[in-house]
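dumping the sequnces here before i forget
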Amino acid sequence: MKLLVVEDETKTGEYLRQGLTEAGFIVDLVHSGLDGQHMALNESYDLLILDVMLPDIDGWRILQNIRAAGNPVPVLFLTARDSVADRVKGLELGADDYLVKPFAFSELLARVRTLLRRGAAQAPVDRIQIADLVLDLARRRATRAGRRIVLTGKEFALLELLARRRGEVLPRSLIASQVWDMNFDSDSNVIDVAIRRLRAKIDDDFDDKLIQTVRGMGYVLEAPEDLA
Amino acid sequence: MRGYSLTTRLTALFSLTSACVLLGLGVLIFTAMDRHFAVEDYALLRDNMRLVEKTIADNTGSTLPTRLANAYQHHSGLLVYTRGANGQVHYATPDFDFAAALKTSIEASRKHVGDDDVFQWTQDGKTYRGMRATVNAAGERTDVLLGMDTEIHEHFVHAFRRSLVSYVALAVLASGVFGWWAARRGLAPLRAMATRAKVVTGDKLHERMPVEAVPEEVANLAANLNAMLERLQDDFRRLSEFSSDLAHELRTPLTNLMTQTQVALSQPRDAEKYREILASNAEELQRLSRMVSDMLYLAKMEHGLDLPHKETISIAQEAGALFEFYEALAEDKQVALRLQGDGIVEGDRLMLRRALSNLLSNALRHTPQAGAVVVEAHAEGDSVVVAVENDGPEIPAELLSSLFDRFFRGDKSRRRPESDSVGLGLSITRAIMTAHGGGISVQSANGKTRFVLRFPPRNAQA
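..and the predicted 3d for all of it:
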């Protein structure tokens, strides 16, 4: 997967490149809007990450020009300005997502993966297996090592989210938004408690722990062999 | 119309008015005087006419011219001309040409009827008044014409006019000066206000207009300006408090971050230790970043904005969704969540959910084990009232009013709240309610704390 990052702030750009590269993406980084537009039009990318405020031409203009050239590549905007008008403008111009600075890198990574996955046609799954944990999505049932685990509706939704995005560190805000539809910075204690209760049901009785805490970032569901 | 000062305009107006009034008065006096002189002159002429008539009646034939000459040749002010029916002139004041007088008298007699025909004519630059009569004595008709020079009046009128003009000029000047002075004096309160306004700066917003010291026409303006200053002062105070609050709140976490990082760097450590420190830093930074976004959110709310997406919202439905979210936390603390009633309000779903979420999170934090949090909604008249009530220690009455202040925390000594709350939740909830045209209040008594949200009638919302 190849990404283009257009960010004029050098340090931010470097950190984004490093982070995204370590997450397994191929990343091109440019610092000016015109370079960014040129690269976007002449190379083939799976996703563009554009800063809105750039010294020469702003992110909106780049997006307009790319769309005018008939390029449907998904675009994620980064901005320091957070106003409803800006958000609406971005979405009207055909932006796919919008992230306000300061943002957590884990949040950015999660959104990038969501956007990339959206493009790929997904075969409908009705069963997910990770190590000995099996989720029956159609019947909303979970078993581990053949043993039935009784989960509440929201617990199952939480487990399903972690399982669908196995190996990805999911920030608390993303979990709150996806599972409970809380689209604002809410009490993140709640997520910790919910995860602890979920762990009690699926991990406590087993030696191999599937749900991991990544301090300062969030939670990830991984099979032990993935970790190795 | 801009350009001329108010003082100039008022001065000009005063001068113009007094000039008009005085000139009008002058014209009136002149007309009256002229009429008075005419009446006097004609009376004199009439008296003399009687005498002439008597002389004609008493003397007939050849003695008449002599008698007339004797009577009138030394009468300097009076012009006399008599003529018999045969065209013979009995007497005419010597050295005077009566041609113009006769012509005017004939013209006048055509226009007037009656025997006291009076008329006026001009000759050699002088104005004369005349009277004409026909005397029938001893079967003979005699035409008599008397005239008099009005020069004596002219002199008087000229002198009077001269003094009147100087008086009017002087009076106009005086009233101009007086008008200027009055305008200056009358506008003095405005200048006082301007002087006062000059000293008002960002750090001297407590200065006020002198409402007591100005006349009532200006007092209203002064009072309005004072109200404006009051609002500005309030906004200004809030803004500076906002920045100092923010700086103050950022100081502690920044110090922690800096110290921790520098201590970590001061000597080599193993990878696990570094990881530990970075993770702790990341948590602290997330808290900081959340504080910044909350502050920005609050600032946006307080600047007043239209609700982005207005829709009809069921309180019970929103509370239900929030209960699902807080369920795990509540069960963990063995706190019961209860919902009673319902209410339909209009507003932005995300904002209202956030407002309620803050109250619930707050309530859960302060409810002791085995306590309960109750959300109750009902209609009260046209408005909808939503109460969030929790068991828990009472909040001291003196703290209730500052509960909604930014960064307020009940227990000042508690260095760090148990959750990642930054002390903005209740401020944000209040700002959201204000944006919806509603309000929030709080009561704390009998081991229960109750926050009450009041929504305005649905069709009357801002």
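The interface with chain A takes residues 275-276, 278-283, 286, 289-290, 292-294, 296, 300, 305, 308, 321, 324-329, 331-332, 350, 353-354, 357, 361, 419-421 of chain B (CB under 8 Å).
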